[in-house]
Amino acid sequence: MQWTLVIPLKPLARAKSRLADTAADGLRPGLALAFAQDTVAAALACPSVADVAVVTNDALAGRELAALGARIVPDEPAGGLNAALTHAAEAVRASRPETPLAALNADLPALRPPELSRVLSAAAEFPRAFLPDAAEVGTTLLAAAPGHELHPAFGLDSRARHRASGASELLLDAVDTVRQDVDTGEDLRAALALGVGPHTATVTARLLIPGQ
């Protein structure tokens, strides 16, 4: 089974504000783009993934991620993360109605294709399923089988919200790179310890990160 992944990305100028203690204002947009580039590149290298659709209105991100092989879906609702995902899922399903679909965070710079394959294989057993993040509060992946809608509920306490929505929680070990999203300096250090992709490695080389 091959999946289509939908990856949402907000405008780079507004991305990763919680990294203010680690990266200056001028560096955070480049860091957010690097995270997305490494996430998309790893996703496209995953044998379980047929297609990656990035939903964004950021022109630079759109160009750079399209160059990697992603297709770009404009965020026409401009109504936040869940509205963007719903819109992109509808766009994907309009042309490929039988595809299994998964929403994936754009800030997984340590993502490994084999671990992503394992998560998607597990998700295929359920109508809807999700993977909690490393902090065990949020969600990094939400999957829907053909014939089922995503019904995304990302945001505060999304792990509890996705569970309450009826999605099955994937309780997997050894998939740390799919769970380690980056919102804070501590998250970034954890991702660096796992081993990040080349774009993130290049940008973080310009940062002084305690414990790196």
Describe this structure in words.
The protein is of the alpha/beta class and 212 residues long. The chain contains eight helices and seven strands. Helix 1 runs parallel beside helix 2 (59-68) and helix 1 runs antiparallel to helix 8 (198-204). The longest helix has 17 residues, at 28-44. The model has no long low-confidence stretch (mean pLDDT 95).
Task: Set down the secondary structure blueprint.
Elements (H helix, E strand, L loop, with lengths): L2 E6 L19 H17 L4 E7 L3 H10 L2 E3 L7 H15 L5 E4 L8 H11 L4 E5 L6 E6 L13 H7 L3 E2 L6 H4 L5 H10 L3 H7 L8
Parallel strand pairs: 1-2, 1-4, 2-3, 5-7
Antiparallel strand pairs: 4-6, 5-6
CATH architecture annotation: Alpha-Beta Complex
Beta-strand percentage?
A: 15-25%
- For the biggest β-sheet, the strand order reads 3-2-1-4-6-5-7
- By secondary-structure content and strand pairing, the structural class works out as alpha/beta
Number of domains: 1
Radius of gyration: 16 Å
Query: What would the CATH topology be?
Result: Spore Coat Polysaccharide Biosynthesis Protein SpsA, Chain A
Oligomer category: single chain
Summarize the main sheet.
7 strands, mixed
Low-pLDDT sequence parts: none
Q: Class, according to the CATH hierarchy? A: Alpha Beta
- Supply the number of helical segments: 8
CATH superfamily annotation: Spore Coat Polysaccharide Biosynthesis Protein SpsA, Chain A
Helix content: 25-40%
Q: Element order, helices and strands? A: EHEHEHEHEEHEHHH
What is the residue-mean pLDDT, rounded to a whole number? 95
Ends distance? 38 Å
Shape: globular
Number of strands: 7
